[in-house]
Design brief:
Two copies of one chain form a homodimer. By secondary structure, chain A is an alpha/beta fold. Chain A has 16 helices and 17 strands. In chain A, strands 1, 2, 3, 4, 5, 14, 15, 16 and 17 form a nine-stranded mixed beta sheet that branches. The first copy, chain A, has a four-stranded parallel beta sheet with strand order 6-7-8-9, sandwiched between helices. At the A-B interface, helix 2, helix 3, helix 10, helix 12 and helix 13 of A face helix 2, helix 3, helix 10, helix 12 and helix 13 of B.
Chain lengths: 478, 478
């Protein structure tokens, strides 16, 4: 037994924080033991845990957060769309600015923008991201010699930052039902499912040797019922099913989308997907703001996931995700930073609850019914933190989101002396983190047991920012 | 002339940032020249400005923010109320937890809690605060030998941190119309206006020698129409008018409050105040969530101010402040962090707009009609930043909120390389700050020309936090 313990600790790194989040509560006196392969070997008593010991004094340690919905390149329009461009501004006028940016980026620009976004995520405690990637072609609409050139730029950016990435490769066929082609969408289009599948197959080969805890992998993302006609959609979903890939799709973000779907198919988006058998446990409906009670039941029956993106949904005027009805029906809710107007997944977590408080004029709307596990003081916060971790991991097909033996050793730490949480005890620390934490309090971030952020800084942060600033200057000159 | 210039620069400190916010835009090449008395001497060309030069490399400099509504002691319940305590949780159940904390604090505890809250404000770029102070008596409900003992603890905390404070001394007479006295409110009560006025007069004497740019001053705050009967209210307002003091009052935060006022007086709160002639340019209605269009007009006609507290209003389930109707009618909107569930006045600023986007499903709701000043890209952000600065200053009776000669030299800086704003140029920096800034980007904060926060830290931060942690431990044991 002693030998086995020695073997276990061979090459292990032992992180010893003041408090460690074990899934429902913070506990003191525990260590996180990480193996050389980057997985969790044990969560055990700090006394006597073998290996290289890293003391994290004054810190609480939590599982890394999972950002289930990102469009990394949209970081370039931050601050450029918060003004009125017409009589009545909406998602649709915002989209024009976003399309202009999408048209202007070279492959290396995309790398620089993505690296900036992923660095900001790492600094906020995010260790894995689902990148909903729809830039495939040249600005002129031609295929690059390598049709996955841009996808590979995004994956390279994530690898260089050190965060895990699910490259959710987008299928995009058209501007919409009975709508003429839109010039601004020509970088997105793969006109038929055979082309989409062949290109996705080629990308899949990149990640054949990733091992048990991959740093990058592939999912598919039929963009929306607007952009992908039903027959195309069915082929993409059949392909994903055969490869057991996660499927993400924008669903019911804007009322106009639902109306167009109704006009084309006689059914609302979720109804259509359910009828056609396209939902399932690997399906994530991104947004799902405008869904009927019947559609919520269909998502629940299929064991599908919803990804809410409240900081973006409030920015775009999409509306409030009915997380109360979704969670009550048993639909897991993941979270995404989406357009990156803010990169703070805890702000998304609290808004999931807060936007319901604002519309219902009551408090603690999503608080679970009392159970015997954990403290009631932290039960709501634990549920919201699960959205930012476990549900996100399920959504993007990742085994992380919690710190248990055999899972990836991805975590972040919180400075217990940061003014945003100072004074919290083990019982109310999680509510303080979920409802009040400032990004300034995130100090260390590890992926696969290795620190990518130390004392609030990423090693390559300076260069990343300089390159991003040069990109912004170039885009302004364009 | 040369001599005069030398005189001007005698003892001056010249802050030279990369960019300086001059009210509608950021400009480069400018310096902020601060006099020995703590006021702004000039905003002028950085080349040749005389005095001790402090280069703020990689920084943008903005006027310090004004937090117009704070209950500093409520910092002690952060993280303790985010769970369901009954079938349906609301403002009213939250209030029970807040009352329990209010009952438990000694004078020194109140100092420690206040110092913690004011330190967090300083670190967030807030340089002046309106403290709506209603703790007057001992836990048993007796007057302290000094009836302003607790008010003085709060003012001392603000002075020690270095932020300016308007001590808005609260008048509180009763639990409500036809409601029996509430044990938990006995620390708040001053049963008659004569007592309230005498005690406020005594406090006013503390600040007789504050000079042109006071660090602390007094206003009055009849708590609400619920807590102050009309005759009492009229005497308080007459007193405030004779002394030209700011008057703050909680107005229309919760529907139940409006209903009770209607029952007692036959009028809604704002209607009542307008009819009785109690509104005016020194009057601030805090919250004003549930107001009719007619009430908005009454506030506008009286040139009164509204103080919105969106981070608290979303936490308490109060509802959405109709900032669209208020601003359209010409009512200035100030901002407050109120219960301190978060201390981030820029988050409050963006929520003023965002909560309207969520309910109206459109964008840029508060964007002003185009004018010739400034860039349209930053016009909405400038309007929201005005709420966090100029309108807050007007609300609490303070000459700050902008950086102009003769005004107090209160400012904060933003690290232009912080990932939350990196890549912004002078045109889109303000929208990036208002919509995306992380508190981590706030690096220097000055009050009266002297730095109270340097490189993101307050000099006394360590001791302040240790004392606050000890207070939290004591409250848990109590």
């Amino acid at each position: 037994m002693a030998d086995e313990e020695n073997n276990v600790s061979e090459g292990a790194t032992v992180y010893v924080p003041d408090l460690l989040y074990t899934g429902r509560r913070f506990e003191s006196g525990l260590a996180l033991v990480c193996g050389p392969a980057g997985d969790v070997l044990a969560v055990e008593c700090a006394e006597g845990a073998g290996g290289r010991v890293v003391r994290l004094r004054g810190r609480a340690l939590l599982p890394g957060m999972v950002n289930a919905h990102s469009h990394a390149f949209q970081r370039v329009i931050r601050g450029r769309t918060e003004f009125r461009s017409g009589e009545r501004d909406s998602f649709w006028t915002w989209r024009e600015a976003m399309y202009a940016a999408a048209s202007a980026l070279s492959p290396e620009d995309l790398y620089d923008a993505s690296r900036m976004a992923f660095t900001e995520m790492a600094l906020a405690g995010i260790t894995a991201v689902g990148e909903f990637h729809y830039l495939h072609r040249t600005p002129e609409g031609d295929e690059y010699t390598d049709p996955n050139l841009l996808a590979r730029c995004v994956v390279r950016a994530a690898r260089d930052v050190g965060v895990r990435v699910a490259l959710l490769r987008v299928a995009y066929a058209r501007a919409g039902f009975r709508r003429p082609p839109d010039e601004r969408q020509k970088r997105f289009i793969e006109p038929d499912p055979a082309r989409f599948i062949a290109n996705t197959e080629a990308l899949l080969k990149d990640f054949a040797d990733e091992g048990e805890h991959p740093r990058a992998w592939v999912g598919v993302a039929p963009h929306s019922v607007r952009a992908v006609p039903l027959e195309y959609l069915k082929e993409v979903c059949a392909f994903a099913g055969s490869r057991r890939l996660p499927v993400h799709m924008h669903v019911a973000e804007q009322p106009a989308e639902n109306a167009a779907c109704l006009e084309e198919t006689g059914r609302t988006p979720v109804r259509l997907l359910a009828d056609e058998g396209l939902l399932g446990p690997r399906f994530t409906a991104v947004h799902a703001v405008h869904v009927t009670p019947e559609e919520v039941q269909a998502l629940a029956a299929a064991r599908s996931i919803v990804c809410a993106c409240p900081t973006t949904e409030r920015n775009l005027g999409d509306g409030v995700v009915p997380a109360d009805r979704l969670l009550a029906a048993g639909v897991p809710v993941a979270l995404g930073t989406d357009s990156h107007t803010q990169v703070d997944l805890l702000e998304d977590a609290r808004e999931l609850e807060y936007h319901l408080r604002l519309t219902r004029l009551e408090r603690n709307v999503l608080a679970p019914v009392a159970d015997d596990e954990g403290s009631p003081v932290s039960a709501l916060a634990a549920r919201l933190f699960d959205c930012a971790t476990r549900s996100g991991a399920s959504s993007i097909g990742f085994r992380g989101g919690e710190l248990e033996p055999g899972r990836p050793a991805d975590f972040f730490t919180v400075d217990l002396n940061d003014p945003s949480v100072a004074g919290a005890d083990s019982e109310d620390l999680l509510p303080a983190v979920v409802f009040s934490l400032s990004r300034a309090a995130v100090r260390e971030v590890a992926v696969g047991g290795r620190l990518v952020v130390e004392d609030g800084r990423h090693a390559a942060q300076g260069e990343t920012i300089e390159r991003f600033k040069a990109l912004r200057r170039k885009l302004r000159g364009a």
